[in-house]
Amino acid sequence: MAETLNAHQLMQLAQCMTRMQSDITDYELHHYGELNLAQKRSLEETLTQVAAVAGRMYAYSVQLVFEDTDTQLQQLQQATDQLRKFLKTAVKIQQVLDIVSAITSLADAIISHDVEGISEGIDGIIQMVGNT
Amino acid sequence: MKKALIAGLVFFGSCKSTESINRFAKSASTGTAEISRSTLDFSQICRLYDPTVLKKMTDTTLYAKSVHPASHCPEFKMADSLTKLINQTLVNYFSMLGSVSDKKLLAYDAKDMVNALADIQPQVYPSLSLTDEKISAVKGLLNTILNEPLKWYRNKKLISVMRQNDSVLDRVVTAYSFILDSALSGEINQAKENYRSFVYATLYEWSATPVEKAMVNQLYNQFMLSMNDEQVKIHKAILMLKIIQKDHHLLAYGKPPDGFAYTESEISQDIVLINKIISELIQLIK
C-alpha cells in the first residue's frame, strides 16, 4: 500500500524547501562574483522551482487538513441547522403568547361594545395567526 | 404550592442566564469573521509574491514590458475556498448560538395583557379594586411566569447543543489554527524568501554604489516589516481562536466546583480580550 503524507508531514517538507531556498540564496549572495552566467541561470532556475513547489505544498496542506475535518464541519453545520429550527419553534411560542394577549384585548373590546376595537382586534389576531 | 412554583421559575431563570452565552457568541462570531477579513488570502500571496510575479520587479526593459508567464495559482484558490468554508461554518454556528440566546428576541412583555385585564375588571368585577401597585405587581409576575420557562427551555437547548458539539468545535478550531499558523504563515515565510531570492539578491548585485545598496536594503526592510505585520495578525487570530475554544467549553460544562459565577466572570474577562484583539486586527489593516 502506498503511503501518503499527512498535512503535518507535508508542512515539514515545505518548510525544508523554504530553508533550502534560503540557503541557496545566501550562497548566491556571497558568491555572486565568482559565478559565471550559466551558473547564475542554473541557480535561478533551481530557486524558481523550489519556490514554486514549496508555495504549492503550503497551499495543498489546507486540502489535507480539510479532508481530516470534513466530518466535524458537517456536524457543526448540522448543529447550526438544529439551532435554526429550535429558534423557529421558540419564536412560534412567542407568537402564541402574543395571540393570548391579543385575545384578552379583544375580550375587553367586546365587553366595552367598542366596534372599532373589535374589528382591529380580530384583524390583529388573523394577522398573527397568519404569521405563525 | 403556587408560590413555590413561581419561586422555582424565578430561581431557575436567574441561575441559568443565557446572557453569558449571548455575549460570548456575539464576540466569537464577530471575531471569527474579522479573522477572515483581516488576514491575507492564499491567492493574494500567490498573485503578489509568486517568483514569476516578483521577477517583474527586476525587469529593466523600457516600462518593464517583458513578457512573464502568468501564475494561475489553482492550489491557492482551492485553499482559500476551503479556509473560507471553515470560517463561515464557525461564524454561522456562533451567530446561531447568539440568536437563540438573544433575550430581546424572546422576552415577553405582559404589559398589554395586564392593561387589557385591568380595563375589563371594572365591568366584570366592579367590587374588586385594582390599584396601580397591584397591576404592576401582576405585570411583573406575569412577565416572570411567561418568560422564565422560555428562558429555561432555551438555556437547556443551548447547553445541550454546546455539549454535543464541544469536541467537534475543538477539532474544527484546531484545524483552522493549523491552517493559519502553519499553511498561511508558511506562505508568508515563503513570500519573504521569494522576495530575497528574486528581488533583493538581484537588485543588490546590480547596485553599483553604496547609495543604491542602501536603497535596496531600505526596500527590503519595508517589505519584511509588512510581512511581519501579516504574521502578527495571524498570531492574534490564533490567540483569539484559543480563547473562543476555551470559553465554549467553559459555557458547556462549567468549572466545578466554582460553578456559574466563575464561568460568568471568566467569560466577561475573555470578551474584553476578544474585543481588544478585534480592534488590534482592525488597526493592523489600516
Give me the count of strands of chain B.
Answer: 0
What number is the mean pLDDT of chain B? 84
Distance between the termini of chain A: 58 Å
Oligomer: heterodimer
Q: List the total number of helices of chain A.
A: 3
Estimated share of beta-strand residues of chain B: under 5%
Largest interface: A-B, 57 and 66 residues
Instruction: Please provide the ordered H/E string of secondary-structure elements of chain B.
Output: HHHHHHHHHH
What is the total tally of β strands of chain A? 0
What is the general shape of chain A? rod-shaped
Q: Would you write up a description of this structure?
A:
The complex is a heterodimer of chains A (132) and B (286). Chain A is built from three helices and no strands. Chain A has one domain (7-131). In chain A, α2 (37-111) runs antiparallel to α3. Chain A has helices at residues 7-31, 37-111, 115-131. Chain A is an all-alpha fold. With 286 residues, chain B is mainly α. Chain B has one domain. Chain B has helices at 2-15, 19-38, 42-49, 51-54, 74-100, 103-106, 111-124, 132-206, 210-253, 259-285. The longest helix of chain B has 75 residues, at 132-206. Chain B is elongated. At the A-B interface, α1 and α2 of A face α3, α5, α7 and α8 of B.
